[in-house]
Amino acid sequence: MAVRACGLIIYRRLQSAPSAKVTDSIEYLLLQTSYGTHHWTPPKGHVDPGEDDLQTAFRETQEEAGLQASQLTLIEGYKKELHYPVRGKPKTVIYWLAEMKDCNTEIKLSEEHQAFQWLKLEDACKFAEYEDMQATLKEAHQFLCSKE
To answer: Is 17 within 8 Å of 29 (Cβ atoms)?
Structure first.
């Protein structure tokens, strides 16, 4: 059976000049793991017994980034499922999209991560080494652009 994990792709909108495109003011939150290859990823983690997927995504975001569900707005209509092997076993990761209500809210990392960055799409894709994560970020960005 596949390992199952869930998380949130979190973004914030910076206050930009009136002439700037809204999509240029969007930054994504990535966390750098303090283990393994120190890869960069949105907050995510394994589903606990009795939890549904979305509960897991919010719990992991609170544990890994210190963000409460009340500080985020879940974006309707976006959900992405990724499938890839980890140490020879299949893994499924489900991401939702959420916006920070206050772009200045402090991020509080757990011991699982050593750093965080707010990144524009192009930089976020450079930090997220895995192609499927890059594609997911681009897809989420396109989704947000189409809603403007």
So the answer is: no
